[in-house]
Each structure stands twice: as structure tokens, then as C-alpha cells.
Amino acid sequence: MKRKTIEGLLLTGALLFATVGCGSEQPAEKTKIRLSEVIRSVFYAPQYVALEKGFFKEQGLEVELTTAWGGDKVMTAVLSNQADVGLVGAETTVFVNQQGATEPVVNFAQLTQRDGTFLVARQKIDNFNWSMTKGKSIIGSRNGSMPQMVSEFVQRKNGVNPKVDNTIIQNIAFDNQTAAFASGTGDFYQAFEPAASILEQQGKGHPVISLGKDSGKLPYTVFLAKDSFIKANPNTVQKFTNAIHKAQNWVQNATPEEIAEVMKPYFPQVEKDILVSVADRYKKADIWAQDPIIDKEEWENMHEVMRQAGELKTPGPYDKLVNTTFAEKAKQQVK
């Protein structure tokens, strides 16, 4: 009896130790991803949804988000290993390839599938036609930027010769454009949100057309990384893409009010009703990609936009600069 009692005590102790050990076990360490976004913009709502709703954390990722304030700065951060992943226009990888980079920067997941700007007029125009811009001035973006290339592409498509039939104002800093238009500069303004909605609310401007609808689909904003990073960290890239696709699904099914509520922490200076207006306008314009796959047709459309702008010296090989493996798997697995 004594021996059995001792053995029983030892067994009980072992079980208690195992139970306590399991209860005090620390959660698995999360993989850290340094993400650099080109600007802070409501245009990138699905990214903020993935962060705020915990979709990255569900995948075991800890995402450190920084804002570079410039496509060249994002690319510099990625190339110099200061960032693991960049969020920027896919055209930047074409430019890097044109410059003879020794290692390609690869686009692996798409976030936005159309240009996110709206042409804002001073007066409300129910039946806008691009011929109305002839002899007028438009506050635009710098040469070589995707917004400017898309604007010129859409104008040509609609029978307007940009900078000949009209004047493009390009000497105003991005941060000052909305104030400049509100104070009387330009007849039209190619505006991102929330500028378009703010001007509309103030009665100082009226969005008349979505440039993204007229330009067609293209990989306007994508997640990219150095080829070596992707090859060394395929599981991490897959988890990142899974989280993005879950956010894309959430956004497609959410109301503008729900999207605005999630975005609010990232735009504390913007009133919620403006965020609701932005989300509604972007959903109606089909701005956000429904899945992260960058297809070849979109890639070629981007090339045509760049070609017409005189910015395409050497086409970016789709098979070299685009990897759809992770996006295709995410689309199959994430519902």
C-alpha cells in the first residue's frame, strides 16, 4: 500500500507539473514584417482592415507599418533591406528593371485595381464630357507618376490632347493642391480622396468622373518585395497574402459605414461622414481589387498607359516581375 501510495503521489505530481507547464506556455513568437506604404491614404482601406481586424495576427504576423511619402522612397527602403514589403504602384518595378537592377523586385499581391482619382469641377456637371476641359486648366500630378499618366491616357481616349488642348498645372505640391483649388486655382482638379469628398462637402468642388473607371483595370497599387526575400520566406509571404485577401473579402461585403469605422484610427483628422463618402465612392467605382491576383491583361494595360506617356523604355517582363503563386493559393484557401 505504501509503495502504491508513493507511486500515486509521484504520478499526481507529474500530471500537475504537466498541467501547470501547459498553462504557462508562452504564445508562439510572431514573424515580424516591415511594411512601407507609399502614402497614408484611404485608397488603401483593405490594408488598414487587415491591420485593425487582426487578420495579420491570425496568420502569426506582426506587421510594422511605416509611411514613406514617395514611391522612390518605398523602393529605396525595399532595395536597401530597410523594409521587407512595399505598398506602391507596380510601375515602380518596371522602372527599376529598366535601370538594370541586378535583382528584380517582384509584385506578389494586388490591393487596388484602378486609378483612385476623381476629376473635380467647380460646378456640378450632370453629363460631363472630356471636351469640356479643352481650353481649361487642370491641377494634375508630376510627369511620370501613375495618376498623371492615367489622366493623359483617359484624355487621349476621349479625344483630348493633354497639354495641347488644355493646361496641366504641375507645380503645386501634393499636400497643397486641395487648398489651391479651393482658393481658385485651376478649372478642374484631379483629386484623390478624401480631398474630393471634402471639397464637395464644402461646396467648393464637385466630382464629375472616376478616372479609374475610364482607364480600365491595372495593378495600380500592389505589395512587392525583393525576389530574394520572397524565395527565402515563402511561408511568410503566403501568410501576408492570406491576410490581405481576407481583408479584401471583408471590404467587399462591408457597408461604407463599417469600412469607415475600421479606417477611423488611421485617419483621426478626417470626419467619419467623409470616410463614409469615400468608402461609398470607391466601392461604386470598383477601385479595390476583389482578390490579390495580378493578371497579365492588367499588366499589359499598365504598360500601354506608360507607353503613351513616353515613360516605357523597356517593357517589364510579366514572368519576371509578377508572382501570382501566393495570390492564387490565397484565393483558393481564404473564404
Query: What's the name of the CATH homologous superfamily of the largest domain?
Result: Periplasmic binding protein-like II
Helical stretch tally: 16
**Order of SSEs, N→C?**
HEHHEHEHEEEHEHEHEHEHHHHHHH
- Which spans have pLDDT < 50 for at least 5 consecutive residues? 1-27
Q: Provide the β-strand percentage band.
A: 15-25%
Mean pLDDT: 91
Main CATH class of the largest domain: Alpha Beta
Please describe what this structure looks like:
- α2 packs across α11 (234-253), α11 (234-253) packs across α16 and α12 crosses α13 (272-284).
- The protein starts with a helix and ends with a helix.
- The protein is globular.
- With 335 residues, it is α/β, with parallel strands linked by helices.
- The strands form two sheets. It has a five-stranded mixed β-sheet, sandwiched between helices.
- Residues 1-27 have low confidence and may be disordered.
- The protein has two domains: 31-114 and 218-333, Periplasmic binding protein-like II (D-Maltodextrin-Binding Protein, domain 2), CATH 3.40.190; 118-215, Periplasmic binding protein-like II (D-Maltodextrin-Binding Protein, domain 2, 3-Layer(aba) Sandwich).
- α6 (146-157) links the parallel β6 (137-139) and β7.
- The protein has helices spanning 2-23, 45-52, 55-58, 71-79, 91-98, 146-157, 177-182, 195-202, 211-215, 227-232, 234-253, 256-263, 272-284, 296-308, 318-321, 325-333; strands at 31-37, 61-67, 85-88, 105-112, 118-121, 137-139, 167-169, 188-191, 206-210, 221-226.
- The chain has 16 helices and ten strands.
- InterPro entries: SsuA/THI5 (IPR015168).
- It comes from Effusibacillus lacus.
- It is found in: Periplasm.
- Keywords: Signal.
